[in-house]
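ok trying again, last paste got cut off:
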Amino acid sequence: MKFKADEIASVIQKEIEDFRGLMQTAEVGRVIEVGDGIARCTGLSTVMSGEMVEFSGGTRGFAFNLEENSVGVVILGDYLKIKEGDEVRSTGKLLSVPVGEALLGRMVDPLGVALDGRGPVITSESRPVEWQAAGVAERQPVKEPLQTGIKAIDAMTPIGRGQRELIIGDRKTGKTAIAIDTILNQKGTGVICVYVACGQRASSIAGVVEVLRQNGALDYTIVVAATSSDPAPLQYIAPYAGAAMAEYFMYQGKHTLVVYDDLSKQAVAYRQLSLLMKRPPGREAFPGDVFYCHSRLLERAVKLNKELGGGSMTALPIIETLEGEVSAYIPTNVISITDGQIYLEPDLFWKGIRPAINVGISVSRVGGNAQTKAMKKIAGSLRLDLAAFRELEAFAQLGTELDKATQAQLDRGYRMVELLKQPQYGPLHVADQVVAIYAGTKGYFDKVPVNRVQAVERELHEFIRTEHSDMRDKLVAEAALTDEIEGMLKKALEAFVARQAAKG
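nice, full thing came through this time. structure:
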């Protein structure tokens, strides 16, 4: 058999051209101590802070403490499978999560692993869990409203796209209900929502997912779940993972809303990790950098400038207080980071005033900038009127004789309180809110018995939708209470009051 030298040479040459030296290097270390979700490793001398590492069984972790002779690694998964002497290797990558359209409508854990039994999340995109917040020059002022659908909030403590508004109160006062109503109200607005459940019971999270599904809100929502039975590391990174998923859409020019439910439990998980890593404890045994833990998360909420696409990320962090103690360590920290707070009071909740918002303490530091012109016009005096009513109510309890004007002010105050009550999972369009609050402040409900105010309000909305839809459509389109629209609204309200009087 005769060999052709030139053929052999060309084959060898082609093989050499196609060959690429894929030499992979990875630093390999050993586990010297493991337990309670953390591992201490040696041999990883060039590992970065926050870098992802992989244990021999495939479990992942990230570098948390960089010490002189060892590295403290937080284990993201079952730490019982890891034992002393196991191999651990660096990956050269920061801790990242999958992002993209494939996550919409899904329930995932903080690492992006599906929890809803609908197969794995298939996406080629990923994003680091920790990301630097946009600088001042990359932002623009918060001026666009994000409607919650809740009258008391949209009128008195409005939220704008790109704002950070804290929801704070004792347990079982309706904090999650406000956040869920806000998510439901984004239907049809193009806002993508991320609900981060951190340290909640699995049954509570399942209940929230079911409510979102029934109301058609799951299509534009991502649920990131770290339950109370999950290890502390997963609870700690859950809010950052949720922020990363929202940021992907924000940098595409879309509007997003992230609910962190709740950051008190995340702080406790962080305290657990820090104490296990022997970081020095400070006030209430929290580590000294717990403020930074929350500030670097909430600073990622932003309204980007036009050059970056004009997208936004609105944050609704939730904090649970104990016995209304707003001046505790974590609540004061988060209050000082956010642009306002909605304070829910147990006493109001048990009186049946729901949402149980304490108007005196609740505030939005964006204010009227985040309201439509119509809402701004009618809600300007509402907060002052309610504050005056609260004072009068306390005075009236002394049993003194009241003059007619004071009594009339009290009566209207009782009706306004009733009017601001709202059932759960029933967000209202801003045009309907304007109609109801206008009717209340202008005295159209003064003749209605207090116990019938909510029923009459429902009838009013039905009446406006069926018989004065042209006026409502105009109000929706213009989002301002012009003289023409106000004239039409007055006529509609007079007709409604006349009909109510005829019904007796």
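cool. The chain has a mean pLDDT of 92. The first strand starts at residue 28 and ends at 35.
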